[in-house]
Every structure is written in structure tokens, then in C-alpha cells.
Amino acid sequence: MSIFQEKKVITRMAPSPTGHLHIGTARTAIFNYLFARKHNGTFILRTEDTDKERSKKEFEDEITDGLAWLGIKWDSFYRQSERTLIYTGYLNTTIEKGSAYVSKEESKMRPGEMVEVVRLKNPNKVISFTDEIRGEISFDTTELGDFVIARSITDPLYHFTVVVDDHEMEVTHVIRGEDHISNTPRQILIQEAIGALRPQYAHLPLILAPDRSKLSKRHGAVMLSDYKHQGFIQPALINYLTLLGWNPGTDQEFFTLDELINAFDLSGVQKGGAIFDVEKLKWFNKEHVSGFSDTDYYDYVTKYITPALLALPQFSTDRLLRLLPTIKERTAAGAEITLECEKGEYDFAFQTPKIEPQMVKWKNDASPKVTLQRLQKLAEIISLMDESFSIDEIKNRIWGYATDAGKGEVLWPLRVSLTGKERSPDPFTVIHIIGPSEAYTRIKRACDTILSDSLA
Ligand code: GLU
To answer: I need a labelling partner for 181 at 20 to 30 A (CA). Which of 190, 262, 428, 433 fits?
Structure first.
């Protein structure tokens, strides 16, 4: 039974601002946040910037901006560089108690120079702790010796500051990456030296690449900002990253943030590494985006369509609105919308295509004459359509003729006349997007092209 059982849950995310915000760090923040919220507790964000050379304000900003963007709200914020006096106080008390001592040594960084480091007096014992995810872990600390806890009385090192802060901030649960397991025995020794309570530990599995190696840049994007720029939306990232190493114990995959807060529990966290699968993340993004209102989806799409598409001669908001369901069906994230635009996949909606007469002809049709006859019949049917027709109404008007004369025979030349492409959305959708009157004009133009080609 934990000594924290009765206390209010307090978790913390303690990143060092020495690099970009990795998705693994974002996942750790999410787990801490969910756990705190689930237990009506508090979530602390603490930047561990005691490494003066490597810590950068721009990285701290990236962390705070990234988490804020995700919607992970912290209840309080601390910066270790502003807490030196507190650490010095603890160092002095620990030295006075005899649990640590000042040692005059040659500086490792500046050979020849003598420094006064602070070392912990290691009681040389076996430390055992219960990890919420991995169970009992024991470690013989003898081999650690009297390790250094501060470079000087005013320059404490990571292990010491973490322990002091977790103690001062009354952190009940330390939920962090598996790479910190080996740091835990040292930190427990320091806790015992300063008289701090031991928090519950939960070490999260690593995030692995599909080849089971540690996920790194060579596998593709690893920074949260990369995913943001690619158009992944916050609820999808939170949903996916939470499932990366955590299992709800049911088949449910799609979760809103509130549902996650409700369902999340450390007992569902797996021990083994979690494989990052960008295709799965795309699936989540598509699912979450599909819940957008029409206005939100329109705003989303306009961020990713290209200036070249906007510059096409027939571009209009109205057509773009009618194109949205097609975009939604074909893409999972914003960057894919941009890519589709660059490939010209949506040009048909905003410009009259250039027609290849040979492409318009259905493979079984004997001559251009037959194709022409079909297009003329289609033009007739389309001329009677109303601009406000739905896709179904458009389809109903054409379907009878297509079933009589052959679907390929009718729908192929129709679609190619409208889009100029061998592959594109179905012709009913295309007519709906561009409107029957523009469709009529395009068919007539295709007829002219076929005619002049056959006469040539
Ligand atoms: N500052 C440490 C890091 O960024 C984390 C410390 C902790 O979570 O205990 O890796």
C-alpha cells in the first residue's frame, strides 16, 4: 500500500530544454496529464535547465508552445534555473547531516583546476522499488560509489534537482520514459538522504520504429512540430500517442480527450516497446477530421491547398465547398491535400481540361462516331439538370441510359470529357462539383475536339 494512497495526485513533466520536442516527450506529457486529470489531481510542467550549455530558451518555448497547442494544460510551471537557492539549501542541510560531503578534486572539464564538488555518501545497499508498470525492481547501488550530486554548492546536478523538486512539489507519481529506470536507484538514495518521501514510479515503454529499433530521425519525422505542420490535429495525436503503449482493455480505439481521461489507467500500460506506425496515426487523423463541421473542415482545407489551385480560372468558394467531401475521402492529413493539389488531382474542379481524343473513347467502341453519339445523348440529359441537383439526382438521370448502353461505354467518355483524366472521382460527383452547365460545356468541347481530330 502506497504512502500516497490518501494524497491528492500530483504528476509532473520534467523535460530538459536541450532539443526539439520529440513525440515521445509529448506522449510522456499526455500520460502525466491524463493520470492527473483522471484523479482530479495536479499536473506540473517543470523545465530542467540546469545544464547551462545545452539548455536553450527556444527549446523551452518549443516545449511550452507544443504542449499548449496539443491542449495539455499544466497547473503550474517551474524553471529549475530559478531555484538554485532552494537546491543550495538542501545541499547544505544534507552536508550538515553527514549524508553528503564536499570533495576537493581536479575539474574534469578544466584539467589542472581544483573544484569543490558535492558527493553523496553512498550507504552501499540494495534499493528496491515497485514500478507501476514493471513491478519490483532491485538495484545494488554499491557500484555507484559516492556519486557527485553537485558541481559546486551552487551548481547542483540533475539527480539532485529532480529529487528536491519532486519532494518540494509533493509529486506523488513519477511517470517518465523507461530510459530513466537506471536513474531511479540514485534518486532514491538522494531522497533518503534529504528525508523525502518516495513517489510511485511508472516507467513508460520506449517508442520504437517498425524495425523495433529506437525511433529516431532516420525513420522520418519525430518532432511534434513536424506532425503539426503536416496537418495532424491535436485530438488525433493525443488519441494515437496515448494508445502508443497503453491499452484500454476494450476494442475501442477512437477516443476524445474526455474519454481518455476517463479510461486512462497505468495498469493498461504495456511493458514492451510500442511501435510507431505513421499509417495508423493517419487513420486516427482521418477519423478525427471526419468529425469536423463543414465550416471547420473548410478552414482546415484552405490552410493546405496550394496558391496554384486558387489561381485556376474557375476557382470559387462554392466549388471548393462541393469538392470538400472528395478531399475528405482521399486524404488523411493536410500535407496530403497539398500533395494532391501539386499532382493536379483537383484541377478538374476549377478549369476546363485538355482532352486527348483517344482517351475519351471507350476501349470497346468501334469508332469516334459512337463515342460522339453517346456524348451528345449525355449532353442532352445534362442540359435538363438543375444546378441544385444532388449527386444522387444527377446519377438517377444518367443511370438509366448507362445501364441500357453499357456503363463503361457511357461513364468512361463522360468522366474523361469532364476531367481529362483516366483516374478521377466518379462522373456524378464531378458534375455535382462543377455544376451541370459547366459539365454541358465540357462535353460539347470534348465533342468538338473528337470531331476535329477525326476529320484531321
Ligand atoms: N529532465 C529529464 C529528461 O528530460 C527528465 C527527468 C524526469 O522525468 O525525472 O530526460
So the answer is: 262
CA atoms within 13 A on the CB side of 296: 7
Cα(14) to ligand 1 centroid in Å equals 5
**Phi-psi region for residue 193, left (φ > 0), alpha (ψ -120 to 50) or beta?**
alpha
Q: How far does the centroid of ligand 1 lie from the alpha carbon of residue 99, in Å?
A: 24
Across 385-404, average pLDDT? 97
Cα(116) to centroid(ligand 1), Å: 26
What local confidence, expressed as pLDDT, does residue 389 receive? 97
CA atoms within 13 A on the CB side of 285: 25
| Percentage of the residues of the chain whose pLDDT score is greater than 90 | 90
**Ligand 1 neighbourhood includes 151 CB (under 6 angstroms):** no
Q: Which of 394, 378, 391, 365 is nearest to 447 (CA)?
A: 378
Q: What are the cell numbers at 14?
A: 520534467
Tell which one of 162, 184, 187 to mutate to probe ligand 1, the residue whose CB is within 8 A of the most ligand atoms. Answer: 162
Q: Render 7-23 in DSSP notation, one character per residue.
A: SPPEEEE---SSS--BH
Give the pLDDT score at 5.
63
What residues contact 243, with CB distance under 8 A and at least 6 apart? 253, 255
C-alpha 215 to ligand 1 mean position (Å):
18
Could you tell me the distance, in angstroms and rounded to a whole number, from the CA of residue 141 to the centre of ligand 1?
20
Q: Are the C-beta atoms of residues 206 and 214 closer than 8 Å to each other? A: yes
Label residue 241 exposed, middle or buried (CB < 10 Å: 0-12, 13-18, 19+).
buried
Helix H or strand E segment including 175: strand 173-177
Give the sheet arrangement for strand 148-152, strand by strand: 100-106, 114-120, 148-152, 155-156
* Ligand 1 contact, 176 CB (< 6 A): yes
Q: Is 432 in the pocket of ligand 1 (CB under 6 A)?
A: no
pTM attached to this predicted model: 0.92
CA 353/CA 420 separation, integer angstroms: 5
Grid cell in block for residue 274:
510500442
Please spell the DSSP secondary structure of 45-88, one letter per residue: EEE----TTT--HHHHHHHHHHHHHHT---SEEEEGGG-HHHHH
**Spatial CB neighbours of 104, under 8 Å, sequence gap ≥ 6:** 114, 115, 116
Please give the pLDDT value at position 1.
44
Helices in 303-422 by DSSP H: which ranges?
307-310, 317-330, 334-342, 357-360, 368-383, 391-405, 407-419
The Cα–Cα gap between 154 and 158 comes to 13
157-171, 206-220, 225-239, 338-352, range with the lowest pLDDT:
206-220
Q: Which amino acid is at 38?
A: K
